[in-house]
Amino acid sequence: MKIKLEKLEIQTRKDKELLDITPEVERAVQGSGVKNGMVFILTMHTSSGILVTEGLPCLEMDILNNMENLAPDKGDYYHNRYLDGDGRVAFNAGAHLKSILGDYKAFFPIENGRMVRGSRQRIYFAEYDGPLCRTYCIQVMGE
Amino acid sequence: MIDFHTHPLLVREMYEKYPDLTRIARDVFHIGNNPQPLETFLLEMDVSGVEKAVLLPIDASTARGCAIYTNEQVAELCEMSDRFIGFASVDPHKKSAARDLERAVKDLKLAGLKLSGPTQEFLPNDKKLAYPIYKKAQELRLPVVFHAGMSWEPRARSDYGRPTLLEDVACDFPEMNIVIAHLGWPWVLEAIMLALKYPNVYLDTSCLYFDNPYDFIEFVMTKQAPLTVFEKSLREKVVFGSNYPRVEIKNMVGAIKKVGLSEGCLDLIFDKNARKLLGDAAQ
User: Fold this and answer.
1) DSSP 3-state assignment of A41?
2) CATH number for the domain including B237?
3) Residues B88, B252: Cα–Cα separation, whole Å
4) Angle between the N-to-C axes of helices B127-139 and B97-106, in degrees from 0 to 180, rounded to the nearest 10
5) Do the bridges between strand A88-89 and strand A82-83 make them parallel or antiparallel, or are there none, so unpaired?
6) A82–B246: do the CB atoms touch at under 8 Å?
7) Count of beta carbons in the 10 Å neighbourhood of residue A46
8) Chain B residue closest in CA terms to A79
9) Does the beta-carbon distance from B212 to A74 stay under 8 Å?
10) Residues of A with Cβ-Cβ distance to B214 under 8 angstroms
11) How many folded domains does chain B comprise?
C-alpha cells in the first residue's frame, strides 16, 4: 500500500474565484506510482473549498453568484465579533458557510494509474474570502 | 485611492528574514493570523481599488522592548514595491528620538511619522518627551499619525489615546499636520471637535471594534455623529484608512462607500485628502 501526501500552495487573486486544479491532481496521481486506489483532495481552510463541476466560465459565475445568495457575506451572523485569538473582528461567516455548502473535499478512484472521473468533471479550488495564499492537500493511496 | 493606515504585519518574507517579528505581531500587536506572501498584500490592495498604502510601524523599544517594525524594515518593504509609502516611528522615551526621526526621513526616505501613546506609553501632550519630536516633524513637514482611542493590544491603556490630549499638540504645532487614527473611537466627538477647530487636524477611518465593517461604520458615522458633519464640515479633513490586517481593506472600502457620502466627498476621503497630506510621497 502506497500513501503519498502533497501540500500545495495556491495564491488566489480575487475575493471569490474558482481555480481549476485538475492538472495538479492528475500530476500527483501519475507521480505517485499508484495503479489502483484513490485520490483525496482537501482544502486546509474553513473559508475555502474543493468543488467538482463542469469546467465552464458561465457555470463558475453561476456557482459563485448562487453561493452568495445562499450564504451572503453581509448576513446577520454571530461570527461578526472580535476574535481574541486572531486579534481581529471576524467578517467572513458567509465564507465559512459557503465552504460547508460546497464541501471542503473531493475524492476519485484511480484505475490503471489514472484518475477515474467523468469527461466533464473538473476539480476546483474555491476561494470565498480572498485574495489569500492557501494550502490544499492531495493524498494518493493504493497499490 | 490611498489607504492611510496599514500595518505590514503578516508579510511572510519579513517573518522569514526577521523571525522575531512573529512574536512581536502575536504578543505585542496581538494579531494571530498566519503570514502571507507580500503578493497577498498587493492583491488585497488590487481587489479593493487601492493604489498605494501607508505602512505604519510603532517603535515601542522602551515600553515593550521592541519595535513593531523598525524604520529600516519599513524602508526595506518600500524597496519591494513602489505602492508602499513608508512612515517612521521613534521612541519618545529615547533622547535620540528627534535625531532618529531626521535620519529616518533623510537616509531611509520615510514620509511621515506614526506615534501611539497606548503602545509607547507616553502622553501625546508631554512637552518633555514628545515636543522635541514634534518640533522636528514640523521642521521636516511630516504628517503625523497618532493612534487614538481603543487599542486591541493587551497592555495598551486607552487613556494614552484620548483625542483631547492632542489639542495642545495641534495648538502648539500649527504647521504640523496631525491625523487622528481610528476616528478616535469611542471618543469620536472629541476627535471631530479637534478636526473641526484646528486646520492641521485630520481623521482616518480605520475603525472597527464590533459587528462588521458595514454596520460599525454606519453606527459611528451616522449615529455617534451625523453623516452631515463628514459630508459638509469635514469633507477635506478625513482620509481613508483600513487598519489592515486587523480589517481587510476590501471590507473597509465597501463600508465607507456604502455609508451614504456623496461621490465628491468619497473622492476626497479615498484619494485627494491623502495626496494633499503626503505631497510628493504620493506621486
Assistant:
1) strand
2) 3.20.20.140
3) 24
4) 20
5) antiparallel
6) no
7) 14
8) B211
9) yes
10) 74
11) 1
Chosen for mutation from B40, B185, B259 (greatest number of chain A CBs closer than 10 Å) is B40
Query: CA A5 to CA B131: how far, in whole Å?
Result: 59
Is B33 strand, coil or helix? coil
**Closest chain B residue by Cα to residue A12:** B40
Strand B201-204 to B178-180 pairing: parallel
Give the domain extent around B52. Answer: 2-282
Quick one: cell of A109? 478512484
Nearest to A89 by CA among B268, B243, B230: B243
Contact B115, B93 (CB under 8 A): no
- Which grid coordinates belong to A13? 487573486
How close does chain B come to A16, measured CA to CA in Å?
A: 10
Residues of B with Cβ-Cβ distance to A72 under 8 angstroms: none
Contact B43 A131 (CB under 8 A): yes
Compute the distance between CA of residue A114 and CA of residue A50 in angstroms, rounded to an integer: 20
Residue keyed to cell 495642545: B168
How far, rounded to the nearest angstrom, does the alpha carbon of residue B215 sit from its chain's CA centroid? Answer: 22
- What is the C-alpha separation between A143 and A5, in angstroms, rounded? 15
Pairing of strands A121-127, B52-55: unpaired
Contact B45, B3 (CB under 8 A): yes
Amino acid at B265: C
* Contact criterion met (CB below 8 Å) for B154 and B30: yes
In contact, B278 and B85? CB cutoff 8 Å: yes
Distance CA(B142)–CA(A20), nearest Å, equals: 48
Separation of alpha carbons B170 and B117, rounded Å: 16
pLDDT 10s digit of each residue in chain B, 283 long?
999 999 999 999 999 999 999 999 999 999 987 899 999 999 999 999 999 999 999 999 999 999 999 999 999 999 999 999 999 999 999 999 999 999 999 999 999 999 999 999 999 999 999 999 999 999 999 999 999 999 999 899 999 999 999 999 999 999 999 999 999 999 999 999 999 999 999 999 999 999 999 999 999 999 999 999 999 999 999 999 999 999 999 999 999 999 999 999 999 999 999 999 999 999 8
Give the helix ranges, DSSP H, for chain B: 12-17, 20-23, 38-48, 61-64, 71-80, 97-106, 117-120, 127-139, 166-172, 188-197, 213-218, 227-228, 249-258, 263-267, 273-278
Q: Do A81 and B209 touch (CB under 8 A)?
A: no
Residue A39 is classified by DSSP as: E
Whether B53 and B6 have beta carbons less than 8 Å apart is answered as yes
pLDDT of the residue at A87: 87
ipTM: 0.92
The whole model's pTM is what? 0.95
